[in-house]
Design goal:
Layout lengths: L1 E2 L6 E2 L3 H44 L6 H50 L3 H48 L5
Antiparallel strand pairs: 1-2
Helix pairs in contact: 1-2, 1-3, 2-3
Amino acid sequence: MVIKGKGPPMEFVSPFQILTLIVAPAVLTNSSSVLSLGTSNRFARAVDRSRALYDKLKVADSLTPSEKDIFTRQLPLIRLRALLLVRALTAFYTSVGAFSATALTSLIGAGTEMYGYTSVSRFLTVLAVTLGCLGVAGLVSGTGLLVRETWLAFKFLEMEVHMGEELPAQ
């Protein structure tokens, strides 16, 4: 079936082609949303940890010198962890928006192509690809930030294990 419009005639676009244009960004939107949720939980734990550190340092008289030293060294690290998590969340939120916009732009682009508006369709194709690339860049950068934050969390664990090793045997 050939559809006629303002541009040259085109072949009928299968509903599966249109669904493919929409489903791929939808799956990536879901991935970004899941990563956002997990990162939000990690951020909440980092905030809780910073409050616990501050509370421990308020009563520094009850701490051993080693504990006080470790907790004091952890303060800038917890700030860095929180900063990395906020940046990762920003990247994931950007991805969610970009992938959602990609799906909508692809749908509109398919419709304009069906009705022969080829110049509009070409512009929307470029826009959809650009938005998709922005979304992927957000996923990749956010994931990289999470990897860095995970290593900082591991450093915290090492500090606390070291502190536990210094405790007298009971």
